[in-house]
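Hey, does this match?
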Amino acid sequence: TPSPRHAVFHHYNFASVGRRDSYGQFIHREKFYDLPLDFYRDYQDRVKLYLLEVANDVFNRNS
């Protein structure tokens, strides 16, 4: 299972979208949390599939 503590996440510098305040928090983060629960489930599923695909590409090369 991919972990954000793995070096690939450090070296590839995954960026986040949105402006941040001086404390590093997203400026409009409360708007993100107002979304329906179905959205969060779909979002989580998509992120999980994407990260698994990235991990598979990085660690399971057949070359």
